[in-house]
Amino acid sequence: MRIHRVLVPVVAGIIVAGVLVTLTVALTRNTPNTSTAGAPVASREEVAALVALKNEAEALAIGNKLPDAHAKYRELFARAQGREIKDPAFWDLIERAKIDQDRIYVILLSQNDPARVLTPPLPSEIAAAQAAATRSTTMTASTTLRPPRRKVSSKLIRPTPNPPLPPRPRRQRAPSPSNR
Q: What distance in Å separates the CA atoms of residue 70 and residue 57, rounded to the nearest whole number?
């Protein structure tokens, strides 16, 4: 009995110590992200250079030099490739550049595809189609409360007759025991 009193607390202490050591190792261990492991973080100068490239691409797009603008966006992505994105402004810059490059690509495709076979619809065409669909299916509610113009004739509505119920079977009284 004495061994039981000593052995149980010792085993419980060893188990608790093992759990604590495991938790400590798991929480203090720095596991690098495999997708960005070893990737350099973009410095402020690099981000400024990428912003300048995006501005050049936008200026080319405004000047209707779409192939050159698309090439500038490709150059921007080539420079940004392999950089770890930690700054939200850098993330936003890359996302907006992707969207702008996609729009320019769709416009370039639509210029070379007059039958619109390979070209997805332009964003303005999608918005116009959605607006037209909404207008044609949306009804405007009347703001005045008026009774209906025609009265519905009550002659049109015929009450359905209830079907006749089957006759109930009659109960026969059982002879009482006193009458026998």
A: 7
